[in-house]
Design goal:
Blueprint (H helix, E strand, L loop, with lengths): L12 E3 L33 E3 L1 E10 L6 H12 L10 H26 L8 H18 L5 E9 L4 H10 L2 E8 L6 H16 L6 E4 L7 H17 L6 E7 L3 H5 L4 H16 L6 E6 L12 H10 L4 E5 L8 H17 L4 E4 L7 H14 L7
Helix pairs in contact: 1-2, 4-5, 6-8, 6-11, 9-10
Bound molecules: ligand L6N33NVT and fe (ii) ion (2 copies).
Protein name: Ferrochelatase
Organism: Rhodoplanes tepidamans
Subcellular location: Cytoplasm
Length: 381
Amino acid sequence: MNESIRTPGSHETTLAPDAPYGSARPSSGRADAGLRPASSPRPTDHPPVRNGRIGVLIVNLGTPDATDADSVRKYLKEFLSDRRVIEETGLIWKLVLNGIILRTRPAQKGRDYEKIWNTEKNESPLKTITRSQSDLLAAALAGVYDRLVVDWAMRYGNPSIESRLAALQAEGCDRILLVPLYPQYAAATTATVCDEAFRALMRMRWQPTLRVAHPWYDDPVYIDALARSIEDELAKLTFVPEVIIASFHGIPKEYFDKGDPYYCHCAKTHRLLRARLGMDEDRFRLTFQSRFGRAEWLQPYTDMTVKGLAESGVKSLAIVTPGFTSDCLETLEEIAGENAEIFHHAGGERFAAIPCLNDSAPGMEVIRTVVERELKGWVGG
Ligand SMILES: C=CC1=C(C)c2cc3[nH]c(cc4nc(cc5[nH]c(cc1n2)c(C)c5CCC(=O)O)C(CCC(=O)O)=C4C)c(C)c3C=C
Ligand SMILES: [Fe+2]
Ligand SMILES: [Fe+2]
């Protein structure tokens, strides 16, 4: 198991059938005894199966194992071959993916990952933070519930969802709460975590019962945690930003047109957070970042907004990224790096990127609230 696991020790039970399978004592008294042909084989007991524990698996998007082009290519190939992410599956897309994207992007992105890499642990910040969230969640719940095992996985790359579900099952978890770490639902993020988990279950004889956490885009605990963290971070700055942008990862506009609720979830988070911070729409903006490919994505785009604000005379700007549960390439490199540069080039003077909730106390309060709510009926009274 990962380091984060709390092992409840003696609480597991080892399940064996109440009587040897196929026991054919002539008058066993069992209701089905008469149904078994006299000549039926008599296998021995099935192997002991541990059960009775409850698993919590938190899952984030994924990240390459290293910054070299081959590692990034492997990660991007898995990611961009997911039909929940790129719905286009035609020959032209396959040619573009294999002939252009996977030839050029891995080296480029590898250099970007190098800028933010956690050299001490030799892994990306997304991995470091997700592991820490799992460890802290396990510690917070340790004294409250027995029989609980907390673990973490990545949708793409390692540790895989399949490997951690198998590990939880081997630990005796016959009920598992899956927590895709996305406050706002999108098919490209939340649904693909569920797809992957259920694909793993397809290969299991005795499937654990699975629950999936509901997205928490409008949860008062989440909105309050964001607001408190933004207020604290703003108080640390040497300037008061004229404008604050709430930048969410985008999706293609076509996915929204087809019914994905992601835009609505982001818009609601933004509206509630703006109200909680007491700011008007000019001061606290909603934008979408990380556009990929040439199709239209959700608008307004973050980079164009940042440039436009600087060009129109805004000198100080802060960007928050409430859709990311932890800092990653998209916040540390794209926002704190690229967008800071765009702002300064266009005439801006003071720029701040506000950290994500990460494994901070308010951030952990959000994850813990979501988990405890979803565990109701499985634990406690
Ligand atoms: C937070 C929600 C996210 C949504 C929605 C999302 C949609 C989405 N992403 C891509 C393409 C890429 N995203 C990449 C990185 C990345 N994306 C998210 C989150 C969401 N993506 C995170 C947390 C990360 C960072 C991972 C890390 O290691 O730090 C990348 C990889 C980097 C790159 O090559 O630019 C791609 C590609 C699409 C196409 C999409 C919606 C359809
Ligand atoms: Fe993404
Ligand atoms: Fe809607």
